[in-house]
Amino acid sequence: MSVLQFTIPPLPHYMMGGMSRLDPGGKHVSRQNIGVFDLLFVREGCLYIGEEERHYEVRQGDALILRPDSYHYAIQECDAMTSYYWLHFQTTGSWSTYDAKLPALASEQQPEANPYAVWSYSTYTSQILIPSFIRVFDRNRTEELFDQLVKLNESFYSSGANWQQQLIFQQILRELSTSIEKEESTSPVLTCANRAAAYIRMNYKERITLQTLGEELNFHPVYIARCMRKVFGVTPMEYVLSQRIEQAKLLLLQTDYTVARIAEDVGFNQAAYFTACFSRAEGISPRNYRLRYAFG
Protein backbone atom coordinates (compact mmCIF):
# COMPACT_ATOMS: atom_id res chain seq x y z
CA MET A 1 0.00 0.00 0.00
CA SER A 2 1.24 3.46 -0.90
CA VAL A 3 0.76 5.84 2.04
CA LEU A 4 1.10 9.62 2.17
CA GLN A 5 2.46 10.98 5.45
CA PHE A 6 1.72 14.61 6.31
CA THR A 7 3.43 16.39 9.20
CA ILE A 8 0.91 18.45 11.20
CA PRO A 9 0.56 21.25 11.99
CA PRO A 10 -0.21 22.67 9.49
CA LEU A 11 -3.17 20.63 8.28
CA PRO A 12 -3.54 20.03 4.54
CA HIS A 13 -6.03 22.53 3.10
CA TYR A 14 -8.80 22.29 0.50
CA MET A 15 -8.46 24.38 -2.67
CA MET A 16 -11.27 23.47 -5.09
CA GLY A 17 -13.44 20.55 -6.09
CA GLY A 18 -16.36 19.34 -8.14
CA MET A 19 -18.10 16.43 -9.82
CA SER A 20 -17.28 15.09 -13.29
CA ARG A 21 -18.96 12.58 -15.60
CA LEU A 22 -17.46 10.61 -18.45
CA ASP A 23 -19.42 8.79 -21.13
CA PRO A 24 -18.24 5.39 -22.34
CA GLY A 25 -15.09 6.03 -24.36
CA GLY A 26 -14.12 9.04 -22.24
CA LYS A 27 -10.99 9.14 -20.14
CA HIS A 28 -9.36 11.15 -17.38
CA VAL A 29 -7.09 13.98 -18.50
CA SER A 30 -3.33 13.38 -18.49
CA ARG A 31 -1.19 15.89 -16.57
CA GLN A 32 2.32 16.24 -15.19
CA ASN A 33 3.62 18.07 -12.11
CA ILE A 34 0.37 19.95 -11.49
CA GLY A 35 1.61 21.27 -8.14
CA VAL A 36 -1.39 20.13 -6.07
CA PHE A 37 -2.73 16.83 -4.75
CA ASP A 38 -5.67 15.54 -6.80
CA LEU A 39 -8.14 13.38 -4.85
CA LEU A 40 -10.63 11.31 -6.87
CA PHE A 41 -13.60 9.40 -5.45
CA VAL A 42 -15.68 7.31 -7.88
CA ARG A 43 -19.48 7.21 -7.48
CA GLU A 44 -20.19 4.86 -10.39
CA GLY A 45 -18.26 3.24 -13.18
CA CYS A 46 -14.47 2.98 -13.27
CA LEU A 47 -11.52 5.27 -13.98
CA TYR A 48 -8.40 3.72 -15.48
CA ILE A 49 -5.47 5.86 -14.37
CA GLY A 50 -1.71 5.51 -14.28
CA GLU A 51 0.74 7.45 -12.12
CA GLU A 52 4.34 7.04 -13.22
CA GLU A 53 4.76 3.25 -13.54
CA ARG A 54 1.76 2.21 -11.39
CA HIS A 55 -1.70 1.51 -12.85
CA TYR A 56 -5.04 1.83 -11.02
CA GLU A 57 -8.59 0.71 -11.68
CA VAL A 58 -10.57 3.16 -9.54
CA ARG A 59 -14.02 1.64 -9.14
CA GLN A 60 -17.17 2.64 -7.25
CA GLY A 61 -16.25 3.42 -3.66
CA ASP A 62 -12.51 3.72 -4.37
CA ALA A 63 -10.46 6.82 -3.61
CA LEU A 64 -7.17 7.73 -5.31
CA ILE A 65 -4.80 10.60 -4.48
CA LEU A 66 -2.49 11.69 -7.30
CA ARG A 67 0.73 13.39 -6.24
CA PRO A 68 1.62 16.98 -7.19
CA ASP A 69 5.09 16.04 -8.45
CA SER A 70 4.22 13.10 -10.71
CA TYR A 71 2.90 12.31 -14.17
CA HIS A 72 -0.59 10.80 -14.28
CA TYR A 73 -2.46 9.65 -17.33
CA ALA A 74 -5.39 7.57 -18.61
CA ILE A 75 -4.40 3.97 -19.32
CA GLN A 76 -7.65 3.20 -21.15
CA GLU A 77 -11.07 4.61 -21.95
CA CYS A 78 -14.04 4.21 -19.62
CA ASP A 79 -16.17 1.21 -20.60
CA ALA A 80 -19.31 2.53 -18.87
CA MET A 81 -20.82 5.79 -17.69
CA THR A 82 -18.48 6.99 -14.94
CA SER A 83 -19.07 9.75 -12.40
CA TYR A 84 -16.60 10.86 -9.79
CA TYR A 85 -15.87 13.61 -7.30
CA TRP A 86 -12.53 15.38 -7.51
CA LEU A 87 -10.82 17.87 -5.27
CA HIS A 88 -7.46 19.61 -5.18
CA PHE A 89 -5.63 20.16 -1.92
CA GLN A 90 -2.20 21.20 -0.75
CA THR A 91 -0.08 21.51 2.38
CA THR A 92 2.48 24.12 3.37
CA GLY A 93 4.10 21.59 5.69
CA SER A 94 6.33 18.65 4.90
CA TRP A 95 5.04 15.40 3.43
CA SER A 96 6.44 12.18 2.12
CA THR A 97 5.24 8.98 0.51
CA TYR A 98 6.15 5.47 1.55
CA ASP A 99 5.92 2.89 -1.15
CA ALA A 100 8.06 0.13 -2.58
CA LYS A 101 7.84 1.65 -6.07
CA LEU A 102 7.26 5.38 -5.73
CA PRO A 103 10.26 7.14 -4.09
CA ALA A 104 9.75 9.59 -1.26
CA LEU A 105 10.11 13.21 -2.36
CA ALA A 106 13.14 14.81 -0.74
CA SER A 107 12.24 17.57 1.67
CA GLU A 108 14.28 20.17 -0.16
CA GLN A 109 12.01 19.67 -3.18
CA GLN A 110 8.91 20.67 -1.26
CA PRO A 111 7.34 24.09 -1.89
CA GLU A 112 9.07 26.45 0.53
CA ALA A 113 6.93 27.50 3.45
CA ASN A 114 7.19 30.87 5.10
CA PRO A 115 7.83 29.96 8.74
CA TYR A 116 8.83 32.40 11.45
CA ALA A 117 10.27 32.12 14.93
CA VAL A 118 7.98 31.90 17.93
CA TRP A 119 10.06 32.30 21.03
CA SER A 120 7.52 31.82 23.80
CA TYR A 121 6.39 28.23 23.22
CA SER A 122 6.94 25.09 21.23
CA THR A 123 4.47 23.15 19.10
CA TYR A 124 4.42 19.37 19.06
CA THR A 125 4.17 17.94 15.58
CA SER A 126 2.76 14.58 14.58
CA GLN A 127 1.97 12.71 11.38
CA ILE A 128 -1.24 11.69 9.70
CA LEU A 129 -1.26 8.77 7.28
CA ILE A 130 -3.54 8.88 4.24
CA PRO A 131 -3.67 6.03 1.71
CA SER A 132 -2.91 6.92 -1.89
CA PHE A 133 -5.42 4.31 -3.11
CA ILE A 134 -8.03 2.51 -1.04
CA ARG A 135 -11.54 1.10 -0.99
CA VAL A 136 -13.32 3.54 1.35
CA PHE A 137 -14.80 1.78 4.36
CA ASP A 138 -17.94 3.95 4.69
CA ARG A 139 -18.78 4.77 1.06
CA ASN A 140 -22.16 6.37 1.81
CA ARG A 141 -20.73 8.71 4.43
CA THR A 142 -17.83 9.70 2.18
CA GLU A 143 -20.17 10.36 -0.75
CA GLU A 144 -22.36 12.50 1.50
CA LEU A 145 -19.34 14.60 2.54
CA PHE A 146 -18.24 15.13 -1.06
CA ASP A 147 -21.80 16.13 -2.01
CA GLN A 148 -21.87 18.73 0.79
CA LEU A 149 -18.47 20.04 -0.28
CA VAL A 150 -19.51 20.49 -3.91
CA LYS A 151 -22.85 22.14 -3.05
CA LEU A 152 -20.99 24.79 -1.06
CA ASN A 153 -19.34 25.90 -4.33
CA GLU A 154 -22.57 27.81 -4.95
CA SER A 155 -21.55 30.10 -2.08
CA PHE A 156 -17.93 30.38 -3.20
CA TYR A 157 -17.49 34.01 -2.14
CA SER A 158 -18.87 33.43 1.35
CA SER A 159 -16.20 33.20 4.02
CA GLY A 160 -18.54 31.03 6.07
CA ALA A 161 -18.95 28.59 3.18
CA ASN A 162 -15.20 28.46 2.59
CA TRP A 163 -14.62 27.72 6.25
CA GLN A 164 -17.23 24.96 6.14
CA GLN A 165 -15.54 23.43 3.10
CA GLN A 166 -12.24 23.24 5.00
CA LEU A 167 -13.98 21.42 7.86
CA ILE A 168 -15.68 18.97 5.50
CA PHE A 169 -12.38 18.33 3.74
CA GLN A 170 -10.76 17.33 7.04
CA GLN A 171 -13.63 14.89 7.62
CA ILE A 172 -13.00 13.38 4.18
CA LEU A 173 -9.32 12.87 5.02
CA ARG A 174 -10.40 11.26 8.28
CA GLU A 175 -12.66 8.84 6.39
CA LEU A 176 -9.70 7.81 4.22
CA SER A 177 -7.43 7.44 7.23
CA THR A 178 -10.08 5.41 9.05
CA SER A 179 -10.24 3.07 6.07
CA ILE A 180 -6.59 2.18 6.76
CA GLU A 181 -7.47 1.40 10.37
CA LYS A 182 -10.29 -0.89 9.24
CA GLU A 183 -7.87 -2.78 7.01
CA GLU A 184 -5.54 -3.35 9.97
CA SER A 185 -7.90 -5.96 11.38
CA THR A 186 -7.16 -8.15 8.35
CA SER A 187 -3.56 -7.05 7.77
CA PRO A 188 -1.10 -8.10 10.49
CA VAL A 189 1.75 -6.52 8.51
CA LEU A 190 0.04 -3.11 8.54
CA THR A 191 -0.84 -3.49 12.22
CA CYS A 192 2.76 -4.24 13.16
CA ALA A 193 4.17 -1.40 11.05
CA ASN A 194 1.73 1.19 12.42
CA ARG A 195 2.30 0.09 16.02
CA ALA A 196 6.04 0.42 15.52
CA ALA A 197 5.67 3.83 13.88
CA ALA A 198 3.40 5.05 16.71
CA TYR A 199 5.90 3.87 19.34
CA ILE A 200 8.74 5.66 17.54
CA ARG A 201 6.77 8.91 17.26
CA MET A 202 6.12 8.85 21.00
CA ASN A 203 9.67 7.88 22.02
CA TYR A 204 11.96 9.31 19.34
CA LYS A 205 14.03 11.15 21.99
CA GLU A 206 15.00 7.90 23.66
CA ARG A 207 17.53 5.33 22.55
CA ILE A 208 15.57 3.01 20.26
CA THR A 209 16.92 -0.23 18.85
CA LEU A 210 15.34 -3.12 17.01
CA GLN A 211 15.57 -5.09 20.22
CA THR A 212 13.71 -2.30 22.06
CA LEU A 213 10.92 -2.38 19.51
CA GLY A 214 10.71 -6.15 19.72
CA GLU A 215 10.37 -6.07 23.49
CA GLU A 216 7.81 -3.24 23.48
CA LEU A 217 5.62 -4.60 20.68
CA ASN A 218 6.09 -8.31 21.35
CA PHE A 219 7.15 -8.98 17.75
CA HIS A 220 10.43 -10.35 16.47
CA PRO A 221 12.73 -7.41 15.53
CA VAL A 222 13.34 -8.80 12.04
CA TYR A 223 9.58 -9.06 11.45
CA ILE A 224 9.09 -5.45 12.58
CA ALA A 225 11.79 -4.25 10.19
CA ARG A 226 10.25 -6.23 7.35
CA CYS A 227 6.78 -4.81 8.04
CA MET A 228 7.99 -1.20 8.23
CA ARG A 229 9.96 -1.63 5.02
CA LYS A 230 6.89 -3.03 3.27
CA VAL A 231 4.41 -0.42 4.53
CA PHE A 232 6.55 2.73 4.83
CA GLY A 233 9.47 1.95 2.58
CA VAL A 234 12.02 2.65 5.33
CA THR A 235 13.71 0.75 8.13
CA PRO A 236 12.78 1.43 11.77
CA MET A 237 16.04 3.33 12.31
CA GLU A 238 15.43 5.46 9.23
CA TYR A 239 11.98 6.25 10.60
CA VAL A 240 13.51 7.23 13.97
CA LEU A 241 15.91 9.57 12.17
CA SER A 242 13.12 11.21 10.17
CA GLN A 243 11.15 11.94 13.36
CA ARG A 244 14.18 13.47 15.05
CA ILE A 245 14.94 15.67 12.05
CA GLU A 246 11.33 16.92 11.86
CA GLN A 247 11.34 17.86 15.54
CA ALA A 248 14.75 19.50 15.19
CA LYS A 249 13.45 21.68 12.35
CA LEU A 250 10.65 22.87 14.59
CA LEU A 251 13.01 23.72 17.45
CA LEU A 252 15.33 25.60 15.11
CA LEU A 253 12.45 27.86 14.12
CA GLN A 254 10.63 28.22 17.42
CA THR A 255 13.45 28.54 19.94
CA ASP A 256 16.83 30.18 20.31
CA TYR A 257 18.38 26.93 21.59
CA THR A 258 21.89 26.15 20.44
CA VAL A 259 22.36 23.44 17.83
CA ALA A 260 24.01 21.30 20.48
CA ARG A 261 21.00 21.57 22.79
CA ILE A 262 18.56 20.81 19.99
CA ALA A 263 20.62 17.77 19.05
CA GLU A 264 20.38 16.51 22.61
CA ASP A 265 16.67 17.34 22.94
CA VAL A 266 15.71 15.27 19.90
CA GLY A 267 17.81 12.24 20.80
CA PHE A 268 21.30 12.72 19.34
CA ASN A 269 24.31 12.07 21.56
CA GLN A 270 26.69 14.23 19.53
CA ALA A 271 26.03 17.62 17.91
CA ALA A 272 28.43 16.86 15.05
CA TYR A 273 26.57 13.68 14.16
CA PHE A 274 23.26 15.54 14.33
CA THR A 275 24.58 18.22 11.99
CA ALA A 276 25.78 15.58 9.52
CA CYS A 277 22.43 13.75 9.57
CA PHE A 278 20.44 16.98 9.26
CA SER A 279 22.55 18.24 6.37
CA ARG A 280 22.27 14.94 4.54
CA ALA A 281 18.47 14.87 4.96
CA GLU A 282 17.71 18.54 4.26
CA GLY A 283 20.59 19.59 2.00
CA ILE A 284 21.45 22.42 4.40
CA SER A 285 23.08 22.69 7.84
CA PRO A 286 20.94 23.30 10.96
CA ARG A 287 22.47 26.76 11.40
CA ASN A 288 21.78 27.79 7.81
CA TYR A 289 18.28 26.30 8.00
CA ARG A 290 17.53 28.60 10.94
CA LEU A 291 19.04 31.62 9.19
CA ARG A 292 17.09 30.97 6.01
CA TYR A 293 13.67 30.42 7.51
CA ALA A 294 13.56 31.96 10.98
CA PHE A 295 15.25 35.21 10.07
CA GLY A 296 14.19 35.63 6.45
Mind explaining what this structure looks like?
This protein is α+β, with helices and mostly antiparallel strands and 296 residues long. The protein has two domains: 3-183, Jelly Rolls; 188-293, Orthogonal Bundle (Arc Repressor Mutant, subunit A), CATH 1.10.10. Helix content is 41%, strand content 23%. It is built from nine helices and twelve strands. The chain has helices at 139-151, 159-184, 188-203, 210-217, 221-232, 236-254, 259-265, 271-282, 286-293; strands at residues 3-8, 13-22, 31-32, 37-44, 46-51, 54-59, 62-66, 71-74, 82-90, 95-98, 126-131, 133-135. The strands form three sheets. Strands 2-9-4-7-12 form a five-stranded antiparallel β-sheet, covered by helices on one side. Strand 5 (46-51) and strand 6 (54-59) form a beta hairpin. Helix 1 runs antiparallel to helix 2 (159-184), helix 3 (188-203) packs across helix 5 (221-232) and helix 6 (236-254) crosses helix 9 (286-293). The radius of gyration is 21 Å and the shape is globular. The protein starts with a strand and ends with a helix.
Outline of the structure:
The chain is α+β, with helices and mostly antiparallel strands. The protein is built from nine helices and twelve strands.
Shape: globular
Low-confidence stretches: 100-121
CATH superfamily of the largest domain, by name, is: Regulatory protein AraC
| Strands, total number | 12
Helices and strands, in order, run as: EEEEEEEEEEEEHHHHHHHHH
* Mean pLDDT rating: 86
Helix content: 40-55%
**Number of helix segments?**
9
Gyration radius over CA: 21 Å
Keywords: DNA-binding, Transcription, Transcription regulation
GO molecular function, one term: DNA-binding transcription factor activity
Domain HTH araC/xylS-type: 194-292
InterPro entries: AraC-bd, Homeodomain-like_sf, HTH-like, HTH_AraC, HTH_AraC-typ_CS, Tscrpt_reg_AraC-type_HTH
